[in-house]
Amino acid sequence: MQVVAAQLPAQLQRGLKNLYTLHGDEPLLIQEAADAIRAEARTQGCTERTVHTVAGAHFDWSEVLASAGSMSLFADRQLIEIRIPTGKPGKEGSQALQQLAQSAQEQDGNVTLVILPRLDAMTAKGAWFAALEHFGVTVRVEPVERKQLPQWIAQRLQLQGQRVAAGEDGQRTLQFFADRVEGNLLAAHQEIQKLGLLYPPGELSFEQVEAAVLNVARYTAFKLAEAVLGGQVLRVQRMLEGLQAEGEAAVLVHWALAEDIRTLHRVRTAMDAGRPLPMALRENRVWGVKEKLMERALPLLSMGQISRWLDDAHVVDGIVKGLKAPGWPADPWQALHQLAIKVSGALKLP
Prior knowledge:
The chain is α/β, with parallel strands linked by helices. The protein has three domains: about 1-140, P-loop containing nucleotide triphosphate hydrolases (Rossmann fold); about 145-210, Helicase, Ruva Protein, domain 3, CATH 1.10.8.60; about 220-345, Zinc Finger, Delta Prime, domain 3. About 60% of the residues lie in helices and about 10% in strands. The strands form two sheets. A six-stranded parallel β-sheet has the order 1-6-2-5-4-3, with helices on both faces. Strands 7-8 form a two-stranded parallel sheet. The chain is globular and about 75 Å long.
């Protein structure tokens, strides 16, 4: 059975299962989901906990199987955690996990918790993951996207008895908060806790939030490229400034921008040759967030415009590597700024 993280508390209230699997790339939300399972396990008599971290190709799975098959001398049940940081258990691990999953259904003893990173589509179709999903509860932990972040912050503030003003003023406060913690959910959590320590329950003013919240946004070149495709001009400007201040390599930022422009060019070429847009995107291995962004962007763009951007990206590549070009800034970051704003400005929503 598969559930999303928000459904886990309700599932736990209906009764603790013998097998849980968490998978996702957001450390804070994975930690919170794991803590909820651990807490419920303790109330059900799992007073002992063993942790196995799968590291390297020669990990000894027999220890895990032995733990799962044994009962503690000091407690009726125990919690067995299996952490697989790579998400790749290997052949022996695949067999062991399938055995663990089946045995979890057949016995009413220990509780097993498997913790994984975000899985790609091929891995999620593996026999071992299918067994975990069939015999236990798998919890998919999705990241909090930028547009969801203000509401997420508001919900977390509410849990500690705090709130922002109603209406436009409150939304402005939440947007400010989200700008400062974007891409760093753990920092957002810490800043929310800090507000709980600094101020009593009740309404928080913009000035209180502004004074307390640090600028802890963690941008990446790939998130910048998504903002460019989304036509989010102001966000693009802020992210470029943040990336430069954080010491990100200009060459990596250029690569992320140029790669998306090259992809737009390939997909537009396929469309002009008669390929339907969804097929052209699949053939160019575009999916997820980028697929939705390009589905919106491509009908707005002509081949001539994309070709000009491709030429611009080539010019900026030279600038990043120390060359000069007429009509372009000599500074790599200024050149990247000019390219990113040109593209995002053309894709800006009306």
